Amino acid sequence: MAQDSINRIDNRNVQFQCLPVQLDAQACELHMANPWKIAGAPASSLRRTVIVRLTDSDGMTAIGEAAPSSLYGESVAGVLAAFAQRVDPRQLSFADVGAGMDYLSTIHDLPMAARCALNVALLDGAARRAGLPLHRFLGLDFKEDHHVTSFSIGIDAPELVRRKVLEASGFPVLKLKIGDRQDHENLASLRSVAPRKPVRVDANEGWSNKEEALRGLEWLARDGRIQFVEQPLHRSASTADLGWLKERSPLPLFADESCHTVRDIPRCAECFHGINVKLVKTGGVSMAYETLQAARKAGLKTMIGCMIETSVLITAAAHLAALTDYLDIDGNLLITNDPFAGVTARGGLLSFSGATETHGLRISPR
Ligand SMILES: [Mg+2]
Predict the structure, then answer these.
(1) How far is the CA of 175 from the centre of ligand 1 (A)?
(2) Which residues pair with 46 in a beta bridge?
(3) How far, in Å, from the CA of 167 to the mean position of ligand 1?
(4) One domain for residues 69 and 158
(5) Residue 257 alpha carbon to ligand 1 centre in Å
(6) Domain stops at, among 112, 131, 150
(7) Same structural domain for residues 325 and 305?
């Protein structure tokens, strides 16, 4: 056995005996600034998320978040039940995040969102114990006022789309959700007030077959300033259909619902030009790191996206910015009662300059 493996195991045993953690989880209701509608889902003004805190025997508390998605069969109740009944926090320690994740892998059908919350909290604690911001702990750079997030415009009536685009005038890049009979009017409304702004389009699986998707992509390409299109077809679309579309598409195609973990990367390289990694889909920061790296190796463009979530997950994602070509981490900007402060996005530019915490996630309560 290699010497470093022996050290890791010894270290793991010692730390588990000395510094197990206690787990506290609470549901949290998030209020949307505007009712949120995407293709295939009803409009909603409320979202629920779960905030988890891990506290070690020294009293140090770290924080994580699960923003479960019904799209993937997950729920707040399911995440809370998993924490209460199936996760033994004594198996988790800030001293060995890898061992904690190995333990979580042994729990059958643990919701990805729950795994994500615990991974984020373990890394927050580990980085704080190391006296480093999370990106440094992961060996990554973070350039202040360099990484740009887009701002999302949900499906709405054309006049409301126009108003939302005006309200988002400070953001240099927009993401437009489509999948509605008024798509053409909505893009025209956007262009009436932001004629030259780069726009990303999220089809959210809204086109029903490859021919319809190609017609939609050709329409979007005529705009001249669409950067790429996310998830044109349903996640169950065949590799043959997606490959057909990739070959003919006039715009780069990004996988979202078709890409969950690193295991999806080989197929995504056949079917798409890039991927959208979300922490709650992939199971946390460690797995997002692995997925983004594998995607780059496979020649794919990379993006981090988000759900409607608080600054906990948005800030966790920001620490991975160096591994991405694009960022879409605005879920905290779409709610009016974010309980936390972390990374900010003034003018779309990510910054930690106002963060009072210097280590770990750099999150503090508002
Ligand atoms: Mg998407």
Answers:
(1) 10
(2) 31
(3) 22
(4) no
(5) 7
(6) 131
(7) yes
